[in-house]
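Question: Hello, beginner here. Any chance you could explain the protein record under this note? Any guidance would be welcome.
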Amino acid sequence: MSRQTVSSGTEWESHVGYSRAVAVDGQVHVSGTTPVDEDGEVIGDGPYEQTEAALEIVEAALAETGASLSDVVRTRMYVTDIDDYEAVGRAHGEVFGDVRPASTMVEVSRLVDDDLCVEVEATAVVTD
């Protein structure tokens, strides 16, 4: 079994004990990704912008393993207000419109920072 981990370098990873992404035998699992920059600041003012930023971070993590957005087979979106489904879905659709991964969006009571309104997970499969 081959295993590669990707770190974004945030203090949360070592404190909580997780990786931004883990690639194992052709699968890449990207952890729940919020739109937060290197300094811990929230990127984006609303659900659309935050989803765009989170997906850019997901894309960067995938790239570190040699995968791309076109390899994504599953996404999960956690939103703090399900009424934001249209804006979150629009941003997701702009990225994955042709890929069309299996996807789930659920409302959660809150995320780690009250300014966050979305968190995204992704799973990719890379074939030779």
Remarks:
- The radius of gyration is 14 Å.
- The chain has one domain: 3-125.
